[in-house]
Design brief:
Length: 530
């Protein structure tokens, strides 16, 4: 099989970007290597090399034809090919790469040295160094070569600025980063200057490029712009804001989606906008999904340019309800320092209400720091504050299934506070403990509606056929709709003729539309109704 045919077959099976690089590599090799036998030995490296300059390295040990190919490669449009040719030539001459680069710059006429100067700029910037610093190790000609490059700074700027607007997205970011390093300026400042010098038609490209910089720096475009902004930049920043505002407008329907995964993706995307998306991120703090609340909390911390812990402390201090504090507590539950943070809130520091304390205790089960879980929860299980005890019981449900946790949850069923009993019922039903079914059924007679609803919910998971009768009584006669809804759901899971009869009666006659709907769904689940 010929090397050309092999390349075509491999490219056909490659991802698009890998295929493009290999194709560009093959074209560059054929452009500069004229000798057919040398091509056959050299260009095949494009198949496995993964770089546009993969073919160049082997030429440094070749004869006359190889040296001609290296000289030709110094004129290539890709700086990587040119730099690879310099390096290969250096090896053949026994020089350092930087000495060979300086020689190339100095031996080229000043009216034709832009390619050499650009190569020096980009090779230096690729290592994060200025050209002067990079060429300092080039020997006696290094300072003169660096001076030649600096003399070409305007032409270098124009060339790299043009690449920042390239139709090939993969070209833009390296050009921006190299220009920023060469000029000793931030990438954000270079983008602002580029926007100021170009028509509005290019704003979307620059906005996308700044987003790539933000992602690389683990920052947001809003934070980058606020950090760099100066009064004369107002018009330019407004142009970029206009682009990002359109993008945010397109995201808002996703934030209201009924699909939790779509909402998660949208909130994760919001984080790249930082302060520009503050309103949307604050709205996401109230989402029913814990992961979305955590993403929003982290996004707001990043927007403020502060550590998550500092913003979370303030968020908890400002919260008047457990619901308002929950996003900040949840975001910190898996963060380094989670135990000390949650313990402080649980003990009353920074918490306005006992319910917020209880929320902090509940999340201790998700924290991997501190003493063993049951030991860290023990003081809170004995707290005189009912919401704190309830939080400790809820935390038991987050622990790996074990006898100690189940025993503690079972003991909490005897607590006098209804919120603690509700938490215990929820934990025992999550543990799927059928031995607790009779206890749950007995609690259907509680005077507290929340306990009755929790008991009815629990029987969906721990109930048996013998519990259908008491659930049916609740569905028919409990004055609280939430209790009847929970009873209908459990009857739908347990089934049997008595369950069907009670569900049919509720579907036909219950005064609450939600109870009717759940009962109808239960009948369909059991094979009755349309």
């Amino acid at each position: 099989m010929s090397r050309l045919l092999l390349l075509v077959l491999l490219l056909a099976a490659s991802p698009s970007r890998a295929g493009t690089v290999a194709s560009e590599c093959w074209a560059a090799c054929r452009r500069h290597v004229a000798d057919p036998s040398l091509r056959a030995r050299t260009c095949g490296a494009c198949v496995t090399g993964g770089r546009v300059d993969s073919w160049v390295a082997s030429l440094g040990t070749g004869g006359v034809e190889a040296q001609r190919a290296l000289e030709s490669a110094l004129t290539d449009g890709s700086w990587r090919v040119r730099w690879a040719a310099v390096r290969a030539g250096a090896r053949s001459r026994g020089l350092t790469e930087r000495r060979a680069l300086a020689d190339w710059i100095m031996d080229t006429p000043p009216d034709a040295d832009l390619g050499a100067c650009l190569t020096a700029v980009r090779a230096a910037a690729d290592t994060g160094r200025s050209t002067a610093d990079f060429l300092r190790e080039a020997g006696a000609r290094g300072p003169s070569a660096a001076a030649r490059v600096w003399a070409k700074r305007e032409a270098v700027r124009q060339s790299l600025s043009l690449e920042m607007f390239s139709q090939e997205p993969s070209v833009r970011l390296p050009a921006l980063l190299h220009l920023a390093t060469f000029q000793g300026r931030s990438a954000t400042r270079v983008v602002l200057d580029a926007v100021a010098s170009r028509p509005v038609a290019g704003d979307a490209v620059m906005a996308e490029l700044l987003s790539a910089v933000a992602e690389r720096q683990r920052a947001s475009v809003g934070r980058l712009l606020l950090t760099e902004a100066k009064p004369p930049d107002e018009a330019v920043i407004n142009r970029l804001f206009a682009v990002y505002s359109r993008e945010l407008d397109a995201l808002r329907p996703e934030l209201a989606s009924g699909d939790v995964q779509r909402r998660r993706t949208a909130v994760a995307t919001l984080r790249r906008y930082g302060p520009l998306a503050k309103r949307e991120l604050e709205g996401a703090l109230g989402d029913e999904d814990a992961r979305i609340r955590e993403l929003a909390a982290r996004g707001l911390a990043e927007s403020a340019g502060k550590p998550l812990r500092d913003v979370a402390v303030q968020g908890v201090k400002d919260a008047e309800t457990a619901e308002a504090a929950r996003p900040w507590l949840g975001a910190m539950a898996r963060e380094k320092g989670c135990f000390a943070f949650l313990r402080d809130v649980a003990e009353g520091r920074d918490a306005r209400t006992p319910e917020i304390q209880g929320e902090a205790v509940a999340l201790l089960g998700d924290c991997s720091e501190g003493p063993p879980p049951t030991r860290r929860l023990a003081p809170f299980l004995a707290s005189p504050v009912a919401p704190v005890r309830a939080g400790a019981v809820r935390a038991l449900g987050a622990l790996p299934r074990n006898g100690d946790a189940m025993a503690l949850a079972a003991k909490a069923l005897e607590d006098g506070a209804p919120e603690v009993v509700v938490a215990a019922l929820d934990v025992l039903s999550a543990y799927r403990q059928p031995s607790r079914g009779d206890e749950a059924a007995g609690l259907l007679e509680s005077e507290h509606p929340g306990v009755r609803a929790a008991a009815a919910r629990a029987l969906e998971f721990v109930g048996r056929a013998g519990h259908v009768r008491v659930l049916a009584e609740r569905l028919r006669g409990d004055p609280v709709a939430d209790v009847r809804v929970a009873a209908a759901r459990s009857l739908s899971a347990l089934g049997g003729p008595h369950a069907v009869a009670a569900l049919s009666e509720a579907a036909a006659h219950d005064a609450d539309t939600h109870v009717k709907h759940v009962s109808e769904e239960g009948l369909r689940r059991l094979g009755f109704g349309r």
